[in-house]
Write a structure and sequence with these properties.
mainly alpha
Length: about 90
Amino acid sequence: MPPTTDTLPVFPRGLLRPAEREAFAATVLAAYRTRSIRAIAGRTGRSYGSVHAVLADAGVLRPRGHPGRPSATTPAPSQRLAGSSRDRRRRTRS
């Protein structure tokens, strides 16, 4: 099998020195344009949490979920109207 060109440098486990952390952050930020957090973690030898922390510190995390689907914190349209004051007024007038 030919060598792949999409390899990332492997960073040692444990606490990274400041220079190593800067290199790791630069590698992660460049790779995040085309790869997932899990793929970056697997290829660099670091944990999902360490990759996520670098991306969170940089403020570049992509939003979660499908773009056309409401998030878990956004109530469905039918649930938004169920407890509205308009519904309560209608129920008291009848």
